[in-house]
Amino acid sequence: MRSETAPAIRLEDYKPPLYRIDKVALNVELTPNATRVTATLQVKRQPDTAAGASLVLDGDELSLAGIRLNGKTLDETAYTATAERLELLSPPAEPFELTLVTELDPDANTKLMGLYRSSGTYCTQCEAEGFRRITYFLDRPDILAVYTTRLEASKAECPVLLANGNLAEAGDIEGTDRHYAIWHDPHPKPAYLFALVAGDLAEVPDRFMTMSGKDVALNIYVEHGKEGLCDWAMDSLKRSMRWDEEVFGREYDLDVFNIVAVSDFNMGAMENKGLNIFNDKYVLADPETATDQDYANIEAVIAHEYFHNWTGNRITCRDWFQLCLKEGLTVFRDQEFSSDMRSRPAKRIADVRLLKSHQFPEDAGPLAHPVRPRTYHEINNFYTATVYEKGAEVVRMLQTLLGKQAFRKGLDLYFERHDGEATTIEAFLACFEEASSTDLEQFSLWYEQAGTPVVSVETEYDPDRKTFSVSLSQEIPPLAGQKSSKPAVIPLRFGLVGPNGEDMETGPVEGAKVNGDVLVLDKAHQDVVFQNVAAAPVLSLLRGFSAPVRLNQPLHSKDLLFLAAQDRDPFNRWQAVQTLAMQDLVRLAGLVREGADGVPSEDVIGVLASVLDETQLDEALRAQALTLPSEADIAQEIGKDVNPDAIHAAREILRRAVATRLGPSLLPFISGNSAGGSYSPDAQAAGKRALANRCLHYYAASGADDAADLVWSRFTSADNMTDRLAALTLLVHDHMPREDEALAAYRKRHTDSSLAMDKWFMTQAMAPGDQTLERVKALMSDPSYDAGNPNRVRSLLQSFATGNPTQFARADGAGFELVAESVLEIDKRNPQVASRLLTSFRSWRALDPQRSALAESALLRVSACENLSRDSRDIVDRTLQ
Ligand code: PHE
Ligand code: ZN
Predict the structure, then answer these.
(1) Would you say residue 3 has pLDDT above 60?
(2) Confidence at residue 187, expressed as pLDDT on a 0 to 100 scale
(3) Are the beta carbons of 430 and 411 closer than 8 angstroms?
(4) Pick from 874, 759, 855: which is nearest to 288 by CA?
(5) Cα dist. 654→540, 580, 586, 608 in Å?
(6) Looking at residue 676, what is its pLDDT?
(7) Mean pLDDT in the chain?
(8) H or E segment to which residue 808 belongs
(9) Is the per-residue pLDDT at 675 higher than 50?
(10) Residue-level pLDDT at 484
(11) What distance in angstroms lies between residue 630's CA and the mean position of ligand 2's atoms?
């Protein structure tokens, strides 16, 4: 029998729970294969619930070993229990105590949900529905309870015992080799925030004094020997805590804040109250093994999880449809934090790049869904770029529309009014409506409608009347399953750039609400007229990417060149360079496809080459401007009948042309920006390295005689991972002479660091060229490969499927087949990792007919599997729809 698609869960079916659980006492007796969990729940009937209505608790692969009601063992006729469900047939009308005993096998838990072991350490992952794999429970985020957790384990195996909240008591269990700890978390919380950790871990301690003078113990727990890799994470944590006080007035609320790094983790990290559990890749760093990008990611993820303490934990979600309530808002907060710590424009460009390359294709394909979905089959599949990144853009637009002050007022009201609650997007928006006296009904469409609006623009200058007319329209392209769309509220930051490059002052504006430099587009069509415009301006629109839309503004290349050189908005300067490059790349790809010789535009070569001399821009911005749109971005721009080989070739043609133009003038940037001093991960130093490595990337394609030697010597002499990996990537992706030697040397140097080895796998998986497929297959049986470790799987297979367009979408279909087969294999062990890998097929319909037919047959093969997980079933069904 083919696995059934799980029933749809719908937002409109939400009903408050029939019972409440106010207190939970857990006693967890840890052993590798037979952990006993005794859960004592204080249960209360809700006022509207009929006395005697049965109590149905969720379970997942559970086995019940005992059940007591108010201390008395229950008769078998009083309940039914399966692995997925426990029903108490006629519970008392008055509050009662229910005690449940379950037995777990943490070692056998390969899904990494619930209680499992990672390198011997016991740890938990409960979001979204993992708590039901520990005990039967009302496993939904609107059940808020106070948890007391007693852990018991072998002293030798688990000297460290941790759970949420503050430590209440600890001691030895006399006459045994075991000990215990009792943790109490006074803050009522949903079950998805429950966590425990037990193992033999090293502790890296520190302290933080909060703004009201409370002394908080901070600890990072890692495997022994890795204590020296925690400095940056700890520093990031302290800066996050201070920043949240200073910028949002939010203070920490327990005596201790613990972070544990584990090597087997499905996601990035988890914000469990007082006990964050992290994928170690977002904790561990030193210059030898971590790149500048790793440092930036660690800073952002540490901040993100910490910020959840207020946006997610103190105020949580009523149901999982409201996921963006905590995620969109928290991503917005971590983006703001990183902007304050680093260069704001560089951070904005990086975030927009990510949005466009991940969220836009999601929003245009079969997996499109609104920021707040209305229906799901498997909630695990909704931890998406749309919920996170577009969710953050929606919060950012709110700030843009209301202004910083009113936005902050609304957020303060939200914290004050909903602290301790599980709430909704409606309640969130109501706070901003009240604080700013603004009606946000139309704005709320951003949460309801899938798809990226296209904003089309035409302009006309009338020299006699001195008017500048801007005709604007918006539309969401049709999407399967979404009937029609309504006009959204789109804040467009803009400037009218005058001939001297300065923004022009104008007279009154008709046809749209304009607030400072923000014009609000809120109808399907709007004709806007600016009065008293002295000379013909160039319209710089969507500055700072003020809304997650596609802009269709047919600018002349002379205007784009002008903006690329003059726009005072650094984001739009970057965007102008990107647009020029993109237009030429699309043209070149078309020519390559027809078998014609592609010659890049002189203007485009010129504008890219001139970036190096823009010394008033910092190095990070220049490096970003010199980074061509990715192959996937170009494919997206082309939109249909995509041939990845032509795109790859076009990109190489342009790279070579720019490289040849710049030639030896690249050299001072390569040497000047690396040498000297000890490594520092700060934004400025990282920007210098980014520019140096970007220049090396061009130099390698310049045809210079010494290019190969220079790359090799960078590889061997690099004193930090950023530079070493940049050189290795060039050697491998450009198939330079000493490619294999470099890979062997890297491996030898880094065998003991699995995070560094992930980069070794990833570099090979992303290499263009026909030989990559065989190499990836061979790497899957390499002794350092581990199909049970999510980071390893992602570094090899996910990077192949999402980061190597020519080889994943090979014309012979072998790339699709490899990924489909791997999905089926991984699915048996870890459905979340498998279904995530499967999403790499989402743009299959945009490929040329031969390739899309091959992709479809690979998908059908996955779909034909009889016992596919619910996670992968959901993705494959929707992808094929
Ligand atoms: N809530 C986590 C975060 O955004 C992500 C996560 C989801 C982790 C589900 C594990 C499981 O920080
Ligand atoms: Zn989050």
Answers:
(1) no
(2) 98
(3) no
(4) 759
(5) 26, 12, 11, 10
(6) 60
(7) 97
(8) helix 805-808
(9) no
(10) 86
(11) 27
Output phi, psi for 103, to 5 deg: -120, 130
When pLDDT is averaged across residues 185-214 and rounded to a whole number, the result is: 98
CB atoms within 10 A of CB 475: 15
**Cβ pair 143, 191 in contact under 8 A:** yes
Structure tokens at 680: 């520092």
Q: What is the 3-state secondary structure (H, E, C) of 632-668?
A: HHHHHHHCCCECHHHHHHHHHHHHHHHHHHHHHHHHH
- Whether 144 and 187 have beta carbons less than 8 Å apart is answered as no
Distance CA 198, CA 158 (A): 5
> What is the torsional sign of CA 219, 221, 225, 229?
negative
Q: Are 238 and 277 in contact (CB under 8 A)?
A: no
pLDDT tens across 600-658, in order? 999 999 999 999 999 999 999 999 999 999 999 999 999 999 999 999 999 999 999 99
Distance of CA 666 to the CA centre of its chain: 34
Which has the closest alpha carbon to 725: 745, 706, 705, 703?
745
Residue 852 has φ and ψ, to the nearest 5°, of: -70, -30
Whole-prediction pTM value?
0.98
Angstrom distance (rounded) from CA 697 to CA 740? 19
In the numeric block, which tokens belong to residue 864? 């034909």
Q: Which residues contact 614 (CB under 8 A, 6 or more apart)?
A: 622, 625
389 Cβ below 6 A of ligand 1: no
Calculate how far, in angstroms, residue 700's C-alpha sits from the geometric centre of ligand 1: 40
Question: pLDDT digit string (tens) for 33-53?
Answer: 999 999 999 999 999 999 999
327 lines ligand 1 (CB under 6 A): yes
Q: Which residues pair with 124 in a beta bridge?
A: 115
Instruction: Out of 260, 307, 383, 835, give the residue to mutate to test ligand 1, the one with the largest number of ligand atoms within 8 Å of its CB.
Output: 383
605, exposed or middle or buried, with CB in 10 Å at 0-12, 13-18, 19+? buried
